[in-house]
Design the sequence.
């Protein structure tokens, strides 16, 4: 989980510094990064932990402030990290910057790969940078959600009326296999309360989801009776059985397999806003 | 055949796990045993269920090893890669590198080293969609993503073993191939050219209940003898599968046009020795043995220097009130004849066998003991030089079985890993990571931040070690000296 806050849209920045990176918007940097921090370069061509290979591209950076990181990662102000830079020689000792990075090697210390950096006026104004990164993250999240909405065949706000084992109406192309990765398909019958895209209030739709607790499906949303939410639904191209039945009537079946496909009921307004947004 | 358990004069740790002769002895510490939690200090906040661990090592370089588990990329589920652990100091410290082409984590992974360090081969079920990916890297210490050599869908439990023959790496990937004809799904993908090309060898020769069980386990000897064990599923009633336990053999490294035909059963003269017939496999993809699922425990190990001797372990339901029972048998004549049970362990899973260079056999397993809130997972390595008439037992971990609650299945793993190198057994298991010395009778080394005094995991976020972190399942590397 990342440390983020919801703010306004990010502003594209022209970054001084290294080549192509200089033209990236902050949102682009944020989108490609999972560890973002403000830090000061202390050594060049060096590493902060022995398990990381030193090279002309590695620099040691002392963390001044952590802006985003996964919860599992131990990173705090005062720690030193190894940064593999995009371009050797782009950073000198004493430079303070906001580093946009991805995890590289996790050992006694953290080593990251630079996606880009924003050289800061020293001292960097931490609050401003935190807000800017948060705005950029919101922009990235909104863009991702908008893309998901555009790919969805149907977007509804509604309530799960029933969960049942999937009734796969098409004949399987081969015998059912017994495997621990079997999704054990279930069907949720959703009563549409608000048809945001491709549906009308009052409709019922069938959404298939894996009931299996196997590791292969660990990230897939599950449904339970009484659950309310905003659902991004995709025509079922996964189970091999594109249709389902409601009260003996054949209807298209849908899936919602990505975590973004299941949002809170309150997110319906955000979804509508994104649909209208050019 | 029931093993007679006596005290081993040289071994201070002897415990009996036969149901009718339980001997309760407090575990004590054996010199030179190492147990190391693989989660590095920089991931001290980690709370994932790092189940189903596996280990790969070199004979030629004891410093280098690779390990894996269902450990996610710390960057999250949107990451394009999943990690492996590597060590270059013989297992004292481990680092995590995101080098597997799978989104966030894998849905199955095993691996084995190539002949020249630091080559590594891996078989994974890739997320999403869980297709098989057969992978290679010429340097597993490199942060570069492993190279895809072959891929296809409808595969389960790839299990990788390797051998170096002349200058070429031979790669054997046992797997359950649902696209195999006639429901004879037990398959070994064989590469004789370092993974550049693979040929799928079907090893089931009898009728099945539509498929074989998921575990297909190759074992290699230095003289190029390759054994493979699999479950010959014959019928099923509800969740119980009636299965044969079958071993095939190839005396020439599976290099011929036909392969794995060198061991036939006297009952029907078909390839594949029926070591046990019509055992009951309780197939359960839900918490059944504690919080663990069961149904695919199978392990095979050959004496690397004397390929006549091969050991087999599997788990089934005996029906005497057990949930799941591990059996161990041995053949001393290249699989032609087999002993009865040399060893049985009730309510255990994740049996892994290895045979050391001096012929000592190691049996790693995880046994559920006690009941309800008092239940524990006991991870144990047994060694024997006399067919388990006597055995030295080392308790590596004894941890609460009810915490943490499972996040997914498997809870600990459908398998773990045991290997040998010279005078030492090296292995890996997953367990509750509470930093409590009484849970690890041989001692334990954590890389992540912990406070043994308060039995707390810490996130390493600041002075004093940081904030408390929830207990989770971690992978633990271990090494135990081989019985002389």
Sequence:
């Amino acid at each position: 989980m990342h440390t983020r806050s919801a703010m306004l849209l990010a502003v594209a920045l022209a970054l001084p510094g290294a080549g192509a990176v200089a033209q990236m918007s902050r949102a682009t940097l944020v989108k490609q990064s999972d560890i973002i921090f403000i830090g000061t370069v202390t050594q060049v061509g060096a590493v902060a932990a022995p398990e990381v290979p030193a090279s002309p591209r590695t620099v040691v950076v002392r963390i001044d402030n952590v802006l985003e990181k996964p919860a599992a990662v131990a990173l705090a102000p005062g720690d030193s990290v190894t940064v593999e830079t995009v371009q050797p020689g782009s950073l000198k000792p004493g430079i303070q910057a906001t580093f946009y990075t991805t995890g590289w090697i996790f050992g006694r210390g953290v080593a990251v790969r630079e996606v880009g950096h924003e050289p800061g006026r020293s001292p960097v104004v931490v609050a401003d940078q935190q807000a800017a990164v948060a705005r950029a993250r919101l922009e990235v999240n909104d863009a991702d959600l908008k893309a998901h909405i555009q790919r969805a065949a149907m977007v509804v706000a509604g309530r799960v009326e029933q969960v049942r084992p999937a009734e796969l109406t098409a004949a399987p192309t081969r015998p059912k296999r017994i495997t621990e990765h079997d999704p054990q398909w279930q069907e949720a019958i959703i009563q549409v309360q608000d048809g945001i895209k491709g549906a009308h209030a009052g409709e019922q739709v069938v959404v298939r989801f894996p009931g299996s607790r196997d590791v292969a499906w660990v990230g897939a949303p599950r449904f339970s009776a009484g659950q309310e939410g905003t659902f991004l639904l995709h025509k079922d191209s996964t189970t091999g059985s594109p249709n389902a039945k409601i009260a003996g009537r054949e209807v298209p079946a849908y899936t919602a397999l990505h975590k973004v496909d299941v949002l809170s009921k309150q997110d319906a307004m955000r979804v509508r806003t994104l649909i209208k947004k050019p | 055949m029931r093993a007679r358990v006596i005290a081993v004069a040289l071994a201070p740790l002897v415990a009996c796990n036969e149901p009718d002769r339980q001997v309760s002895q407090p575990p004590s510490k054996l010199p030179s045993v190492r147990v190391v939690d693989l989660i590095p200090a920089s991931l001290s906040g980690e709370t994932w269920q790092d189940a189903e661990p596996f280990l790969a090592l070199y004979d030629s370089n004891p410093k280098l090893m690779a390990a894996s588990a269902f450990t996610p990329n710390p960057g999250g589920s949107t990451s394009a890669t999943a990690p492996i652990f590597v060590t270059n100091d013989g297992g004292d410290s481990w680092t995590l590198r995101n080098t597997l082409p799978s989104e966030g984590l894998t849905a199955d992974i095993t691996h084995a080293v190539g002949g020249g360090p630091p080559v590594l081969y891996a078989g994974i079920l890739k997320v999403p969609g869980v297709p098989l990916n057969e992978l290679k890297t010429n340097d597993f210490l490199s942060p570069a993503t492993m190279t895809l050599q072959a891929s296809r869908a409808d595969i389960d439990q790839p299990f990788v073993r390797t051998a170096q023959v002349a200058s070429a790496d031979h790669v054997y990937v046992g797997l359950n191939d649902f696209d195999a004809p006639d429901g004879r799904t037990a398959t070994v993908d064989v590469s004789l050219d370092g993974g550049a090309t693979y040929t799928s060898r079907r090893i089931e020769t009898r009728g099945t209940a539509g498929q074989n069980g998921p575990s297909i386990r190759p074992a290699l000897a230095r003289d190029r003898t390759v054994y493979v064990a699999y479950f010959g599923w014959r019928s099923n009633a509800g969740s119980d599968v009636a299965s044969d336990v079958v071993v095939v053999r190839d005396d020439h490294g599976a290099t011929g046009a036909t392969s794995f035909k060198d061991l036939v059963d006297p009952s029907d003269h078909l390839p594949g020795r029926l070591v046990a017939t019509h055992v009951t496999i309780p197939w359960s993809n839900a918490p059944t043995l504690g919080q663990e699922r069961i149904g695919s425990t199978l392990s095979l190990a050959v004496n690397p220097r004397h390929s006549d001797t091969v050991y087999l372990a599997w788990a089934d339901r005996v029906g005497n009130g057990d949930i799941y029972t591990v059996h161990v048998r041995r053949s001393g004549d290249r699989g032609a004849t087999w002993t009865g049970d040399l060893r049985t362990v009730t309510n255990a899973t994740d049996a892994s066998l290895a045979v050391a260079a001096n012929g000592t056999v190691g049996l790693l397993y995880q046994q559920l003991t006690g009941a309800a809130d008092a239940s524990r997972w006991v991870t144990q390595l047994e060694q024997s030089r006399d067919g388990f008439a006597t055995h030295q037992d080392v308790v590596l971990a004894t941890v609460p079985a009810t915490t943490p609650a499972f996040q997914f299945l498997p809870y600990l793993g459908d398998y773990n890993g045991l290997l040998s190198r010279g005078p030492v057994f090296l292995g890996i298991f997953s367990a509750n990571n509470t930093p409590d010395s009484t849970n690890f009778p041989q001692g334990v080394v954590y890389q992540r931040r912990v406070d043994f005094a308060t039995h707390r995991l810490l996130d390493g976020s600041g002075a004093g070690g940081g904030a408390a972190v929830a207990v989770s399942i971690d992978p633990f590397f271990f090494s135990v000296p081989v019985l002389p």
